[in-house]
Every structure is written in C-alpha cells, then in structure tokens.
Amino acid sequence: MSKGKIIVGLSGGVDSSVAALLLKREGYEVVGLFMKNWEDDDNEEYCSTREDLIAAAAAADVIGIEFEAVNFSAEYRERVFADFLREYEAGRTPNPDVLCNSEIKFKAFLDHAMALGADKIATGHYAQVREFLGEWQLLKAEDGTKDQSYFLHRLNQAQLAKTLFPVGKLYKRDVRRIAEEAGLPNHARKDSTGICFIGERPFRDFLARYLPRQPGEIRVHGSDRVVGSHQGLMYYTLGQREGLGIGGVRGAPEEPWFAAAKDMAANVLYVVQGHDHPALQSASLVAQDLSWVSGRAPHTHWVYASKTRYRQPDAACQVERVSADECEVVFAAPQWAVTPGQSLVLYESRVCLGGGIIATSRPWCA
After folding, report:
1. Which of 40, 67, 214, 224 could be disulfide-bonded to 32 (CB atoms 3.0-4.6 Å)?
2. Together in a domain, 147 and 74
C-alpha cells in the first residue's frame, strides 16, 4: 500500500533522481516532474534544457515512475527574471536562485503538485526539514560541503510542511554510489553551476542584451585618480578581480585590483589593491526584504552564525536590531566584500532561521 503521493522535481541531475529513487523504495507513489523555466533563447549552444529533460526522462524510466514536464517560464520571467534585471540596473548583485526557490520551485511547482493530488513534493536539494515542537525547521545538510540551506532560507512554514529533501542526510559520494548501483544513466553527470538561465555564456554579453552598456571611469577608492574605464556598473560586483581591465599602473604596487564600491549617480567604479584592503572589510550590515522560516524574527543581542554569500564559512554575528522592515547585524570579525543584493542568512547551530537582502554595510575601519 502506498504511503502517499510525492511529486519530485526532476532536474536531470543525479541528486533529484536519487531523491525519487529513495522515495519509491520507501513505498511512496512517486511522480517525476521536469520544470522548464527559461525559453527566451532555448538553444543548445548555451541552454541545457533539452539535454536536462532527456536525462530526467531517462532516469524516471529506470526508476520506474511516471514522468511529465511543465512550463513555468512565464512565472519565472515575471517573478524572478524581472527582479534580477531591476537589481542589476540598480547596481546590486542579486541571487536569482534564492528567489527561484521561493517563487517557482516551492510556490508555482508546489501549487501545481497539490493540484495533481500530491501529499508532498520533494527535490534534490542538500538540506533537511524536521518538525520540532509543532514547528517546521530548515536544517543544514549532513554534507557541509554541499549544503544548500542558504538558497532555501526564504521558505516558510506552509512550504516546509509539504516538502521532503531525501538526499539531505547523505554525502554526495553516497548519492553517486546509490545512483550507479541502481543503474541510473546520470550517475556521473556533472553538477550544474552558476545562474541557470545564463548557462556557460559570457555573463556580460548576456546582461548587455537587456541592460545597455553605460561606460564610465574606474577610480582608486578614496581618490579621484582614474586607472581605467568600465562598460557599466551593472557588470561588476564587489570583490570582483577578473575582468576589470586594469593593466599596470605607474607608481602602484604589483598587487591585484578589486572592485570595492560603486557610485551610481556619478557612474564611477572604485577599486583597491590587495585582497585584504580595509575598503573590502565590513563590520556590520543592514538587510531588508526579510523572511523568517518560523515567521518570527530572531532575538536582538543574541549571537548567531551567518553567511553573506554561499560557500563561505559561518561568521559569528550579533543581531543589533530587527523590525518588520530591516535587520542590522554586527560581525565578530571583518567580513570580506559584503555585497548589496546578496542574501544575509542567519543560523542557530544547524537550524536556518531565514534572512534578508543586503542593503548596506559599514566598513570595518570607518
């Protein structure tokens, strides 16, 4: 007898395929669903949608589950890509994967799955969910090197109550081993990286199709000294080293240059030399557009762990103040290249509390 109907978001990768396999082995009625989220230039030069669809269908066939595809490209353009362009145009650096999870994979997909009679949905994300004292919690994955809770921090109680993360308790090597032993054709398939709709294409070329180039000066931070020119502030992110186009500068030490600040009004990009330059170190930040997993804001003056970008080590911080509109945190040690538009995510041990979008930061050495 089936334990319930679970619709699994099959991406074509090994993680979601193993998630579906494990659920079927546990006795669930499993349906695989492939989400098509982009079609503006859906060709095989850069976009892997067709290849992903074929891989997902092949895995579903081996697992022995029903499979269907659904097109969410209109929802993606309206809810994710439009915000992506607005943020870049404002000089910030957004993380569309965060918004894609909250708006597409755990909203549009969840709604679609419920309409099909599913009891829950599942994905191949490396994270965990548990019910604790009547509340749903989002936990870090067992494999810390693959943990994706950062990208999932905007999920709420209703979404977590209907979600399973079957591979969250496994290490990546075990996921690949299970896939290979089961004969899944994608057991060795390379993991996808980067922003899904950009693929392997040059980022600047992609963005220029939607946001025209606006050349301006590159100056040394804290002065009016011009050391180069940029093609548009939207093409650069704080802490960026590659692609600045700054050659040898007379009188400057032989150290790499990094993007340190943007003056949107004057259309100037400010740069510094050296990875550890004080201008790249932040003592605190203010985050807005807040989302807390429990529905409650964290306590002020408590010490939490935090991330201001994916794959960075946890950084100790204290919540200085928090309201419905914004949250200010102060770090125990300087944080490198804190970037407006990216997400601040707070943790209490392994529990992801939620977070917000970084608006501003204060230099370590004011």
Report:
1. 67
2. yes
The one catalytic residue among 47, 100, 317, 352: 100
Which of 244, 284, 283 is CA-nearest to residue 260?
Answer: 244
267: three-class secondary structure by DSSP: coil
Same domain, 257 and 330: no
> Is 100 among the catalytic positions?
yes
Q: What distance in Å separates the CA atoms of residue 191 and residue 12, rounded to the nearest whole number?
A: 10
Domain-ending residue, one of 275, 290, 313: 275
pLDDT at 30 over 60: yes
Comparing CA positions, the residue from 278, 307, 303 lying closest to residue 366 is: 278
Residues 309 and 253 in one domain: no
Q: Is 47 a catalytic residue?
A: no
pLDDT of residue 200: 60
Catalytic position from the list 47, 196, 317, 352: 196
Q: What is the pLDDT of residues 232-260, one digit of tens each?
A: 999 999 999 999 999 766 656 678 999 99
User: Do 13 and 99 reside in the same domain of the chain?
Assistant: yes
Cα–Cα distance measured from residue 355 to residue 154, given in angstroms and rounded to the nearest whole number: 7
Residue 67 forms beta bridges with which residues? 32
Question: Is 186 a domain residue?
Answer: no
CA 153 to chain centre: 10
pTM score, two decimals? 0.93
Assess if residue 201 is contained within a domain.
Answer: no
The stretches of 184-325 forming alpha helices (DSSP H) are 203-208
Residue 193 lies in a domain: no
- 33: nearest Cα among 101, 149, 150, 118: 118
The answer to whether residues 242 and 96 belong to one domain is: no
CATH number at residue 250: 2.30.30.280
Give the structural domain span for 155: 5-181
DSSP 156: -
What is the percent of the chain with per-residue pLDDT over 90, rounded to a whole number?
86
Based on the domain organization, do 69 and 101 belong to the same domain? yes
